[in-house]
C-alpha cells in the first residue's frame, strides 16, 4: 500500500505548493474523472461487503474506461486472489488495493521516463506516427512550442505528403511557433524527409519533428513506407530517430492494442502520446498497451492550445482519476 | 493476444452440439464467449449485458426442431438478434429535395472532410446529383485547403469564405448553390467535443437557421466505450438523422455500430472503407453482424464483384471454376478484377472460414500481386492455358522475362494448382461453414 501513501503525499504536496501541472491535469481530466470516480464511489456505497456482484460491477466500470478486456480480466483475477489471501471483506479496504493494482499494471517494476531522449552531440530526430486523425500534426505543434520555450532551435518536416492540406497545416503551425519548416506536396515522403534532414543539419537545428501520414496498421504498403522512412533517417543520421512517438486518441478502444503492436513491429516506438484527454474519453487503453505491448506514455494532450501538452505522470493520472475518493 | 471469436465461439458451441435441447448449462460457455467477443469489439458494456440477457431468454425458450439443431439454432439466434439491432428502422439518405441540405458533424479526426468528399462523389455517381461542398471548418489550420484539394481532384465545387461566422458562410453558400444549380449541399464542419457548449451552439444555430435535411454524425469505428457519450452528446444537442462509420478498413471490429443502434436508434447510413474517394459503402446490418461475430461476409464480396464484373464474365468464371477448367489466363483476368475491388486483404477477410484458413491476417503487398501478374504476362497465351507444359527451360525464360526467380515461378504454379483444387471443392459443396 506504499503507492497509496504516495498518492496521499501528492495530495498534500498540492495543498502546500499548488503545483501548476497538477492543476492542468485536474482541469483536463475533470470530465474523465467525475464519471469514473462517482461510479466507483457508488459501488462502495452499494456494496459494503466484497462479493461476486461487487466484482461484476467493478468489471463494468473498468471496461467502460477502455482499460482493455484482457487487462481487466487479469486484474480482477489478481484482485480476487488478494481478497481471498488477505481475507478482505470490507469494500472500503479494497479501494486501496484497486488503486495499488492499477499502478502495478502500469509501472511493472520498471523505471519509466517521460523525458525525450535528446542527442547530446547534435541533431535530435523525433518521428511521429499513428493512425489517421489521432492528432499527430497538432501534437508536433505543441512539442515544437515546448522546446522553443526551452530555447532550442526547432524544425518541422512535413512527411505527410498524402492527405490533402496536411503540408499546409504543418506549415501554419511552424509559422505560429516560429519554427523552421521543410515540406513539399505530392512527393515521396522518404525523399522529402531526407532533404529536410539535410536542411536541418545545415542550419544547426537542435530538434526536428517529422510528421507522417496517418496509416492504419493493417495497410502493408503504408507500413513498408514507414520502414523505409526509418531507414532513410538512420542512414543520414546514425542512431536516429532518437524518439519515435506513437500518437493514440484517448477515445480509442481495443484496437489501440493492435495499433501499438503493429507499429512497434515496424519501428522502434519509444513512447506514446495520448491525445484528446480533455473530452469524456478515459484513455484507459494505455494501461492495456503498457501491460501487453510494454509501451509507456510520454505525453498527454489536454486541449487544442499550444500549451495543452503535459508530460505523462502515472501518479498524477491515477490521482486525477481517484481524487475524490481520498 | 486476441483469441478470435470465430474460433472460440465454434469451440463453445461444441457443447451444445448433439444435445437434445438448449439448457442454461450447455449455453453458458457460448454466452460467455459471445460476451467477451462483443466487449473486445468495443460494444458498449451496457448493451452487451442486455444483449446477452436477451439471447439467453430467447435461446431457452426456443423450440429445437429436427431441421435446426441446437447449435445451429443458437448461432442463428445470435446473428438474427445482432442484425435486428443493427438494422431495424433503416432510413436511406434523403435525396429527393432540391436542394437537399446535409451537414456533417463529429469529433476532431473522425474523418468528416474526407467523408464529405466521398459523399459528394457518391451522390454524383449514384444519384446523378450536382453537389456543392461547403467549407465550414474555420478553426483547424488548412482544413479549408484540404476540402478544396479534395473538391479539385473530384471536380466538385467547394464554397469557402474568409469569415469567422459559420452561419454566414452557410447562408452565402445556399445562394451560391442556387445560382450554380447545385442540388445537393454538403456542409463540412469543424471537429468538436460534444461537451464544448460554445461550439455545439454554433451547430445548433446552423440547424435552426437553415434546417438541414440530414444531420450526420461521423464516427471513428475504432472508438471505444466513450462512443456512447459522444453519440448521446451530439444527439441531445442536434436532431441527428444518421451516422457514418469511418476507418472500417482498419482491423477494428467496429462494435460501436451496435452501441449507436441500440442506444439511440439513429440509422447508420454509410461506412468508410478506404482512403480513396470512392471508399464509401452503404451500410448492411447483416455484414456488420458477421464482422463483429467474425463469420465472414461473402455477400459484401458478391456485391462488390457485381459492381465491377459483368454478369457474363462472372458466370463464365464461375462455370470454369466449377469444372476445374480455370486456367492461368482466367486467373490473370480475375486478378485484374480483384485489383479493382480494392485491397485484397479486405476481400479475403470477408470470406467465411477466413480465420481457419489463416487468411484473416494475411498481409498482401500490392507488389506481390504485381509480381504474379508479371510472371503470368511473361507466359505465352498457350502456356497460360496449359501450365502443365511448363518445364525447366520455359520456366527459366518466364523468370527472365518477368524479372523474378524460377522459384517464384514454381511457387506461383503450385499455389495455382492448390487454388484450383480448393475451387473445385467449394463448387462441389465439400467445404462447409464452420457451424
Question: What does this entry look like structurally?
Answer:
The complex is a heterodimer of chains A (326) and B (435). With 326 residues, chain A is α/β, with parallel strands linked by helices. Chain A has two domains: 2-112, SRP54, nucleotide-binding domain (Four Helix Bundle (Hemerythrin (Met), subunit A), Up-down Bundle), CATH 1.20.120.140; 124-312, P-loop containing nucleotide triphosphate hydrolases (Rossmann fold), CATH 3.40.50. In chain A, 54% of the residues lie in helices and 13% in strands. Chain A has 13 helices and eight strands. Chain A has helices at residues 2-17, 20-28, 30-46, 52-64, 69-85, 91-107, 136-149, 166-177, 189-202, 220-236, 255-266, 285-293, 314-322, and strands spanning 124-129, 154-159, 180-182, 207-212, 243-249, 271-275, 297-301, 309-311. Chain A has an eight-stranded mixed sheet, sandwiched between helices. In chain A, strand 5, helix 11 and strand 6 form a beta-alpha-beta unit. Chain A is elongated, with a radius of gyration of 21 Å. Chain B has 435 residues and is an alpha/beta fold. Chain B has three domains: 5-86, Four Helix Bundle (Hemerythrin (Met), subunit A), CATH 1.20.120; 100-295, 3-Layer(aba) Sandwich (Rossmann fold), CATH 3.40.50; 299-427, 434 Repressor (Amino-terminal Domain), CATH 1.10.260. Chain B is built from 19 helices and eight strands. An eight-stranded mixed sheet of chain B has the order 3-2-4-1-5-6-7-8, sandwiched between helices. In chain B, strand 6 (242-246), helix 10 and strand 7 form a beta-alpha-beta unit. In chain B, helix 9 (227-237) packs parallel to helix 10 (256-264). The radius of gyration of chain B is 25 Å and the shape is flat. The model of chain B is unreliable at 296-300 and 430-435 (pLDDT under 50). Classes of the chains: A alpha/beta (326), B alpha/beta (435).
Amino acid at each position: 500500500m506504499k503507492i497509496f501513501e504516495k498518492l496521499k503525499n501528492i495530495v498534500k504536496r498540492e495543498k502546500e505548493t499548488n503545483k501548476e501541472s497538477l492543476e492542468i491535469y485536474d482541469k483536463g481530466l475533470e470530465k474523465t474523472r467525475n464519471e469514473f470516480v462517482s461510479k466507483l464511489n457508488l459501488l462502495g456505497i452499494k456494496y459494503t461487503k466484497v462479493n461476486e456482484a461487487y466484482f461484476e460491477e467493478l468489471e463494468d466500470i473498468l471496461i467502460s474506461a477502455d482499460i482493455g478486456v484482457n487487462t481487466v480480466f487479469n486484474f480482477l483475477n489478481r484482485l480476487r486472489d488478494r481478497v481471498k489471501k488477505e481475507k478482505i471483506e470490507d469494500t472500503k479496504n479494497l479501494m486501496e488495493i484497486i488503486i495499488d493494482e492499477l499502478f502495478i499494471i502500469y509501472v511493472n517494476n520498471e523505471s519509466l521516463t517521460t523525458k525525450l531522449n535528446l542527442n547530446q552531440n547534435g541533431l535530435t530526430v523525433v518521428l511521429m506516427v499513428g493512425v489517421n486523425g489521432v492528432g499527430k500534426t497538432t501534437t508536433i505543434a505543441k512539442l515544437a512550442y515546448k522546446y522553443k520555450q526551452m530555447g532550442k532551435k526547432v524544425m518541422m518536416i512535413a512527411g505527410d505528403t498524402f492527405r490533402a492540406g496536411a503540408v499546409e497545416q504543418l506549415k501554419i503551425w511552424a509559422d505560429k511557433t516560429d519554427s523552421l519548416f521543410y515540406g513539399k506536396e505530392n512527393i515521396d515522403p522518404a525523399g522529402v524527409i531526407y532533404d529536410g534532414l539535410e536542411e536541418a543539419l545545415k542550419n544547426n537545428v537542435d530538434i526536428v519533428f517529422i510528421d507522417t501520414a496517418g496509416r492504419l496498421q493493417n495497410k502493408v504498403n503504408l507500413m513498408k513506407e514507414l520502414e523505409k522512412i526509418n531507414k532513410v533517417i538512420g542512414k543520414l543520421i546514425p542512431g536516429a530517430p532518437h524518439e519515435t512517438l506513437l500518437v493514440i486518441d484517448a477515445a480509442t478502444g481495443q484496437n489501440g492494442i493492435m495499433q501499438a503492436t503493429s507499429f512497434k513491429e515496424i519501428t522502434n516506438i519509444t513512447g506514446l502520446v495520448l491525445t484528446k484527454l480533455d473530452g469524456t474519453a478515459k484513455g484507459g487503453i494505455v494501461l492495456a498497451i503498457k501491460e501487453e505491448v510494454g509501451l509507456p506514455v510520454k505525453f498527454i494532450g489536454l486541449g487544442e492550445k499550444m500549451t495543452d501538452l503535459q508530460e505523462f505522470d502515472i501518479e498524477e493520472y491515477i490521482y486525477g482519476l481517484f481524487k475524490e475518493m481520498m | 493476444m486476441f483469441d478470435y471469436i470465430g474460433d472460440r465461439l465454434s469451440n463453445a458451441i461444441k457443447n451444445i452440439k448433439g444435445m437434445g435441447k438448449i439448457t442454461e448449462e450447455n449455453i453458458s460457455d457460448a454466452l460467455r464467449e459471445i460476451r467477451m467477443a462483443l466487449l473486445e469489439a468495443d460494444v458498449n458494456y451496457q448493451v452487451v449485458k442486455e444483449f446477452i440477457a436477451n439471447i439467453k431468454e430467447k435461446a431457452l425458450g426456443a423450440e429445437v426442431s429436427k431441421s435446426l439443431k441446437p447449435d445451429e439454432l443458437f448461432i442463428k439466434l445470435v446473428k438474427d438478434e445482432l442484425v435486428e439491432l443493427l438494422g431495424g428502422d433503416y432510413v436511406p439518405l434523403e435525396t429527393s429535395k432540391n436542394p437537399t441540405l446535409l451537414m456533417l458533424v463529429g469529433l476532431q479526426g473522425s474523418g468528416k472532410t474526407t467523408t464529405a468528399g466521398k459523399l459528394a462523389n457518391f451522390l454524383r455517381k449514384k444519384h446523378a446529383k450536382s453537389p456543392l461542398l461547403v467549407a465550414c471548418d474555420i478553426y483547424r489550420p488548412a482544413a479549408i485547403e484540404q476540402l478544396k484539394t479534395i473538391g479539385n481532384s473530384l471536380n466538385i465545387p467547394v464554397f469557402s469564405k474568409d469569415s469567422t461566422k459559420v452561419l454566414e458562410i452557410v447562408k452565402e453558400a445556399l445562394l451560391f448553390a442556387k445560382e450554380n444549380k447545385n442540388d445537393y449541399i454538403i456542409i463540412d464542419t469543424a471537429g468538436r467535443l460534444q461537451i464544448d457548449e460554445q461550439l455545439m451552439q454554433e451547430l445548433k444555430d446552423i440547424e435552426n437557421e437553415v434546417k438541414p435535411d440530414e444531420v450526420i454524425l461521423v464516427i471513428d469505428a475504432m472508438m471505444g466505450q466513450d462512443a456512447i457519450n459522444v453519440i448521446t452528446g451530439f444527439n441531445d444537442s442536434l436532431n441527428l438523422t444518421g451516422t457514418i462509420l469511418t476507418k472500417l478498413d482498419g482491423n477494428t471490429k467496429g462494435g460501436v455500430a451496435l452501441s449507436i443502434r441500440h442506444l439511440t436508434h439513429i440509422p447508420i447510413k454509410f461506412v468508410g472503407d478506404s482512403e480513396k474517394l470512392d471508399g464509401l459503402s452503404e451500410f448492411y446490418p447483416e455484414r456488420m453482424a458477421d464482422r463483429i461475430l467474425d463469420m465472414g461476409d461473402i455477400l459484401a464480396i458478391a456485391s462488390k464483384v457485381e459492381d465491377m464484373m459483368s454478369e457474363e464474365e462472372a458466370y463464365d468464371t464461375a462455370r470454369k471454376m466449377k469444372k476445374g477448367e480455370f486456367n492461368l489466363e482466367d486467373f490473370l483476368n480475375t486478378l485484374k478484377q480483384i485489383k479493382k475491388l480494392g485491397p485484397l486483404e479486405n476481400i479475403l477477410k470477408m470470406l467465411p472460414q477466413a480465420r481457419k484458413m489463416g487468411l484473416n491476417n494475411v498481409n498482401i503487398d500490392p507488389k506481390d500481386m504485381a509480381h504474379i501478374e508479371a510472371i503470368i504476362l511473361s507466359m505465352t497465351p498457350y502456356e497460360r492455358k496449359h501450365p502443365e507444359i511448363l518445364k525447366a527451360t520455359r520456366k527459366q525464360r518466364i523468370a527472365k522475362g518477368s524479372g523474378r526467380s524460377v522459384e517464384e515461378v514454381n511457387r506461383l504454379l503450385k499455389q495455382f494448382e492448390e487454388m484450383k483444387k480448393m475451387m473445385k471443392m467449394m463448387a462441389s459443396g465439400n467445404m462447409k461453414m464452420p457451424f
